[in-house]
Model the fold of this input.
Amino acid sequence: MKSAVVVFPGSNCDRDAATALEQLTGEKPHMAWHADPSLPDVDLIVLPGGFAYGDYLRCGAMAAQSPIMRDVKKKADDGVALLGICNGFQVLTETGLLPGALIRNADLRFVCRPVALEVDETQSIFTRRYSKGERVVFPVAHGEGNYVADEETLNRLEGEGRVAFRYAPGDNPNGSARNIAGILSEKRNVLGLMPHPERVCDPLLGGTDGVALFKSLIETLS
Amino acid sequence: MTDITPEIVREHGLSDAEYAKVKELMGREPNLVELGIFSVMWSEHCSYKSTRAHLRKLPTKAPWVLQGPGENAGVIDIGDGDAAIFKMESHNHPSFIEPYQGAATGVGGIMRDVFTMGARPIAMMNALRFGEPDHPKTRHLVSGVVSGIGGYGNCMGVPTVGGEVNFHRSYNGNILVNAMCVGLAKTDKIFKSAAEGAGNPVVYVGSKTGRDGIHGATMASAEFSEDSEEKRPTVQVGDPFTEKLLLEACLELMATDAIIAIQDMGAAGLTSSSAEMADKGGSGIELDLDHVPQRETHMTAYDMMLSESQERMLAVLKPGREGEAERIFKKWELDFAVIGKTTDTGRLVVKHEGKVVADIPVPALSDAAPVYQRPFTHRAPKAQTFAIDENRPVAESLLKLMNTADLCSRRWIWEQYDQTVMNDTVQSPGGDAAVVRVHGTKKGLGITTDVTPRYCKADPFEGAKQAVAEAYRNLSAVGAKPLAVTDNLNFGNPEKAEIMGEIVAGIDGIGEACRALDFPVISGNCSLYNETNGEGILPTPAIGGVGLLKDVDRMATIAFRREGDAIILIGETKGHLGQSLYLREIEGREEGAAPPVDLAAEKRNGEFVRGLIESGHVKTAHDVSDGGLLVAIAEMAMAHKIGTHIALPEGAKAVPFLFGEDQARYVLAAPQHEARRIVAEANAAGVPALLLGMTGGDKIVIEDPANSRQIGHVGLHTLIRAHESWFPRYMGGEEIPLTN
Done:
């Protein structure tokens, strides 16, 4: 599986994503600079966590206008797998590749801790190696991860099986509607999620629950 | 040009004698720009004029020390061509006035100190002191400082992995915010600040210069009074996004060989960076301020030389390499400007709008800066004369202690810090020391910050020794070999003989402990004048310690891991209750002597415990500090919710044994068969060791075998609720009883 990680000014989980990808695919991902006009042909594009453009204006708003995003959108429309983690998820909602928006955490504080998630949907290239309802623990680290969308959109996401991950009942760290932690695009080739799977791929770092997400992709895309 | 009147000299914080010396060194009256430059360079903050004579006594060398004090940060060799670079620095005064920005720019400043030397920052720590919880400002300050530290560090993508927090009324008007940064570099790619050679371009990179922070260094060198709020405009505003770009751009430039010297613009901005670089290089520097990137219009030379705008660096490049450097900074969308050159005149010459506006011999700003042998008096240490109620139920006392401001869980704080970004945090907050892996290797760095200010108040010498010893212990308890420390000396007004006595005794105590423990001081910072309306803080010499684990798989944490393990107490227990939290929180008194520190025992016991962890025999260890033995055991039990039965040894009195704060002690847990062997080995090595009991159950049960009875028990569920609830309830605005 060939992969690329997009680096915006202010990205700071780009190295973490690259480390996890290299560890699991045996191949270093291509690191793409936000000002590049296009990406090479890859099987997976990752928009990493961080504070692209300082998250000034609105999280992800300026990154969504970066030159490289035109090609990212085009490739996503063509069906290339696209994974947005944390700030990457925020960029995806700002570009319109995923519906809804991520606003400030309900308690207005940044939160970094392991949270329990439930895998809500296994019919996707990102989650096929998990079992339905499986509990996994990923860390979160964000100040603006509170997922909101209108009722109709939320109903549609649920109706179409596009809620990939939910915070386990009682462990919603940010007030997200219907405990939503990660959602799929209509074509199911785009996943945005606030928790960090790339931080749980090494037993020394508090778990390996994130491995199955990358293994799902490798299995499908290699 | 403005006439220099005695009022203007006083406003610049210079004494009459100091001003006379300025005139003598200049051979004339200085102009206002020059006076401003002298005022910041000779401020306590930049010149260390009260402490320099004493700091010289600290041990700073060891075979593994590559750079001691004097550079932006200290450097140690951690093997395989890797170097750890670290320093701790205060941002106390600005954080009191404007807690979010004060704390944020404190984090930004210390990160620049580390990456200016070529290191990628890999971990942040902090040491925070606030006033008493029910003081009307405390909640606001805690909230602002914590979100400021998080706001900056999280955006930088550097994990904040631990720290310490205390509350005491002596900090009501003067909180302490000390931030420590640890970075990694290769030993052959370390950058220093000596601007050597003449005719080399001096370049300015980073953010534009504005009028923020003018005279910050002078502010940090004076006491506070009621009108300190009016100083808000001297607090700088941080922009962590720009700093992240600056970090990446600097590291990219450092991968080339274009740099001769580089230094961040911290306190006293352009003035101190240019003067210090010229001084270290034995050269001169000529600056043309017309080329300085400016954020505001009509800035004067005075404004530009004294601005403390953040996220800026000054570098000296090899001639002809400007274009290459400029391309890198433009890529990262940062300002880049050649603003001067090095000279062989030994003078700092500043031009503005075609005129020379300052011309000062560089040594006048450094070597000739005043050094004071301030008079000091040593107060007799407090003696231990107090009585306690021996019959107070120990379980109730434990429950109460775990719900106090100083012993409750700090989860509310550290959950606001990204602790795991960079994917190398092997041990995060809540243990004895944080452990961060050296990326791509099995090695790890143990990191801790420690000081117990109430001990330092009772006995500044023993208290300072204790701070170093506790750092040594916290590192040993995770299995890290302690290598070096950075010190952040927070004290009151050095012009008072009694405060100066605390400073001298504190430095002597650190020196003695660091020598005995082979734990040299490689960087540091002094913050004096921590007084408001004449009331000084508790002496607070914070110690940041760094140690090395050869293999992070051989590491200990504080958690009991399984039922049926034996619990071993290492170190001698005399039951020292003077200055203990038990005495303060349960008996309501701050009395008695600080616990004495036996450095030979610290070394012996620490090496023994570390050996057990390194050899893989022990995976659970915890140092005994604030609150004493029972608090340590409670923390170990709460971590994975595994209870314990312990028994008092023969002849021990419950309260002093369980709550005394004797030093050089650890609690270990190990399988039964291992435990007996460990105790035998310890005794053979002259290390006191005692089997205390067993892990298991969902309670902490304390027995006294002398009369075969249980003297107390507390359920883990109750204990955890007490431990976890204080902070969220307090920050949520619920009434909290006065704790000190």
Q: What stands out?
A: Chain B has a mean pLDDT of 94. DSSP finds 25 helices and 28 strands in chain B. The CA atoms of residues 679 and 689 of chain B lie 5 Å apart. The interface with chain A takes residues 147, 150-151, 154-157, 239-242, 244-245, 332-333, 414-426, 437, 552-553 of chain B (CB under 8 Å).
